[in-house]
Amino acid sequence: MALSGKGFFTWKLTNCEGGDPQRIARRAADAGLSHVLIKIADATSAFGDPGLNRAVTDALHARGIQVWGWQYIYGSDPANEARVAVNQVRALGLDGFSIDAESEYKRAGKEAAARTFMSELRAGLPDTPVALSSFRYPTYHPTLPWSAFLEKCDYNMPQVYWEQAHNPEIQLPRSVTELLTLNPPRPVFPTGSAYGAGGWEATPDDLRRFLQSAKDLDLAGANFYSWDWAGAPNKTAMWNVVANFDWPPSPPPAPSPQPIDAGTQLGSDDIVYALFDALNSHNVEQIVALYQPNAAHVTAQRTIVGADALRQWYTDLLNNQLQGGAFTLTNAEGNGAHRRFTWAADSYSGHVEDGDDTLGVREGLIQYQYTSFTVER
């Protein structure tokens, strides 16, 4: 079953509703959650009380709520880490599985460990939906073996944790755009901050803006870490934001983008062609009109949001970076809400041969864009 709507990660089920399976299931249903993720393994060991894990899973299933397992992996013994995951998912009858791979997998030689883990996992769970839960910005973590994991995953479930800040509507679009440039791209189903650390705490309005941003980006859903924190008696305002946000489960999302031929399979009125027509007109207002009012534009250095910021950026692009530029679309791929294209440009101030952009499209307009290019003088 496809994943959509709202959900929560748990860490220790005993921290959630006093460890009462029926209270957990009732609160999840009252909040309109479509899924709950419970920790079932850490390294090569099962995690949590087996009886409680079983009882919570059964109680949630009885209310039509998906239950996913998650595991923190280290890569020191990948085959046995995968085997414990397979055993737990099968024993509990779980609906999906999320792999929490972090700093340990940035070390040298971990690509082989990732491939061993994924091969063993898929041998035991060939039909179970699997997600990668890792860093939000792959450009900050290039040594993590992204492709080795994603080749056998169904979802990318980034940890979009905005610690020490309160700007999820800025961080989430950047995360999505960066993740969609990975090979292979996978549908993004983000996890937001519902906790505190080091004197900082996510606010209820942070959570609301995170969910709204995910919905604006046309994502299938989102979840939070963690129920342990947000479900506490003194965090009612945080929990209620999620519970009151209208995002019921939806039909299965569109498949991952697949390559198409830019010259024959994109309609003549596609947003990509409209963007290049506008660029070559050198009309900033014509360009900005192709974007949603709250669109995000992302480079490796920064993220900007909104029409005014876009207007300033394109004014600088057309008058300084690529003065009088002639822009050429060289290839395009994608479908549904996603586009990826390459491009070149010649101008009085330099030329570009390596332009590479990703778009997210909502209601016929650009909701987010990740752009990368080098101006050669």
Describe this structure in words.
- The chain has 377 residues and is of the alpha/beta class.
- It folds into two domains: 5-244, TIM Barrel (Alpha-Beta Barrel), CATH 3.20.20; 271-372, Nuclear Transport Factor 2, Chain: A.
- It is 34% helix and 27% strand.
- It contains twelve helices and 18 strands.
- It has helices spanning 21-30, 50-62, 78-92, 110-124, 146-150, 168-179, 204-216, 227-230, 236-244, 271-281, 284-288, 307-321; strands at 5-9, 33-42, 45-46, 66-73, 96-101, 130-133, 155-156, 159-160, 191-193, 196-197, 200-201, 221-225, 291-298, 303-305, 326-335, 338-347, 350-362, 365-372.
- A hairpin with a 2-residue loop joins strand 10 (196-197) and strand 11.
- The termini are far apart.
- Residues 252-264 have low confidence and may be disordered.
Brief description of this entry?
The chain has 377 residues and is of the alpha/beta class. The chain is built from twelve helices and 18 strands.
β-strand percent reads 25-35%
Oligomeric form: single chain
Low-confidence stretches: 252-264
Approximately how much helix is present in the residues? Answer: 25-40%
For the record, what is the CATH homologous superfamily label of the largest domain? Glycosidases
CATH architecture of the largest domain: Alpha-Beta Barrel
CATH topology of the largest domain: TIM Barrel
How does the overall form come out from the CA principal axes?
globular
Structural category is alpha/beta
The H-and-E topology, N to C, reads as: EHEEHEHEHEHEEHEEEHEHHHHEEHEEEE
CATH class of the largest domain: Alpha Beta
Number of helices: 12
Major sheet: 10 strands, mixed
- Rg to the nearest angstrom? 22 Å
Mean pLDDT: 93
Question: How many independent structural domains?
Answer: 2
Number of distinct beta strands: 18
Distance between the termini: 52 Å
